[in-house]
Amino acid sequence: MKVLVLGGTGVISRAITAQLLADGHEVTLFNRGRRTTPASSDVRQIIGDRNDREAFLQRMQAEQFDVVIDMICFTPEDARSSIETFIGRVQQLIVCSSSLAYQRPYRAVPIREDVERLCEDPSSTFPRAFDKAEMERYLQQLMRDGQPITIIRPSFTLGTGTSAFGVLRQNYGVVDRIHKGKPLVMFGDGNNPWSFTFTPDIALAFAGAVGNRATYGQHYHATSEECTVWKDAYLTLGRILGKEVELFHMSSQALMHAAPKMNLHLFHEKSHAGLFDNSKIRRDIPGFRPRISLEQGLRDLVAWYEAEANTVDPVKDALEDRLYAAHMSLLKQIENIYPD
Fold first, then answer.
1. Which stretches of 66-182 are assigned E, i.e. beta strand?
2. Angle, helix 314-334 to helix 172-180, in steps of 10 degrees
3. Could you report the per-residue pLDDT of 33-82, keeping only the tens digit for each?
4. Can you give the residue ranges of the NAD-dependent epimerase/dehydratase domain (predicted)?
5. Domains of the chain, with CATH numbers?
6. Is the C or the N end of the chain the one with fewer CB within 10 Å?
């Protein structure tokens, strides 16, 4: 099939493009051309900006595609643009949402699509969550009216190009601190359940939805099915690197006070359990069988970091040092505060 990917240069998009090519599809990417595209002569690229709505509409009307995968749909306005541009002209529109769109706290764990509701609070501490939810509400109304739209919600996903790994999103800085024997901050006690998903697995969901009529009018989340906890990521890295990992613990509230923008993701998303029931997507996309373990995925991530992305953010590294100093100072202050 002729598949258009809006975006195509992000962490997940690259894996989707690779899977689409492996499945024999003809792939075109539409993006602003600011990042390198997958190194394949089989991929065509159209340069443009979807936020220039009129130019986007006119450019796409000159093209013909069977399926569109929209990886850069963040707001209701983006969704309306895609609907105006493609519905009636393509067989299917697949939209990437996010598990961020779910209302917190969850109603049940593991999380199921038919139980949860979308974020209802426009003053949410994580505004992007409400934007995604509003985008979905708009699309789901059209889906109920019979439009061939599929929504897929990844959760926290890692892979080549990842730029948000670690409690402080330190990226290679996590690996560097382990190498140097420096302590790493962990929010809470580190035992919050979480499924770490890797890009080749999530790509199976998107590619498996292409032209799959069972997915028309449906919305899904798609994640790893391995049950781990947050500190497992750091402890597994230590085993991979052959180093002992020293963790110190601070609440997500304290980390929000230290660096509010940096730690919004902890407060809104990662302080809640991240275990998902994939029964629905496995029913409709039989090829979706997540198979990359946390250890395998982190080995691949470390290999990429050390080969290509081995730079440390000095600001975040200094912040982590200061957080450790504050942590040790607090322990000293409260030592023996209650006499036995």
1. 67-70, 92-96, 149-154, 157-158
2. 60
3. 876 666 567 899 999 999 999 999 999 999 999 999 999 999 999 999 99
4. 3-212
5. 97-331 (3.40.50.720)
6. C
